[in-house]
Design goal:
The chain has about 120 residues and is mainly alpha-helical. It is built from 6 helices and 2 strands, in the order H-H-E-E-H-H-H-H. The protein has one domain. It comes from Haloferax mediterranei (strain ATCC 33500 / DSM 1411 / JCM 8866 / NBRC 14739 / NCIMB 2177 / R-4).
Length: about 120
């Protein structure tokens, strides 16, 4: 595996784990495989599960990711170019890796969007 893949994959199991945690109150079965190369969670929701709960389980990583972003903006504000110019190259590299992990964690996959269609 490439070094880039190992730097970006922590967000994949965390994305799937967020689905599993959001499904706990309603799920009749949660089958999780959180291996870095092939992380996936299969959630079985009973027939009477409210539609809003299905949406919540499907979009949990997106909602958590957006909440984290809003919280960080509330605490630290939006970084300016002049503030970022003071960083060393390794600090900027770390910020890029963190930003890519956040995007991968937050972006809803096709399966996540299926209940919405």
């Amino acid at each position: 595996m490439s070094l880039l893949w190992h730097l970006l994959t922590p967000s994949v199991p965390l994305h799937e784990l967020t689905h599993a945690l959001a499904a706990l109150p309603w799920a009749s079965n949660i089958d999780a495989s959180l291996l870095r190369d092939d992380a996936q969670v299969d959630v079985t929701l009973p027939e009477g599960t409210p539609l809003w709960a299905v949406y919540l389980v499907s979009l949990a990583p997106t909602l958590v990711g957006l909440g984290l972003l809003l919280g960080l903006i509330a605490l630290f504000g939006v970084p300016s170019v002049s503030a970022l110019s003071g960083f060393a190259i390794h600090e900027l590299g770390l910020l890029v890796i963190l930003a890519l992990n956040w995007v991968i964690f937050t972006y809803p996959s096709r399966g996540d969007r299926r209940p919405l269609g």
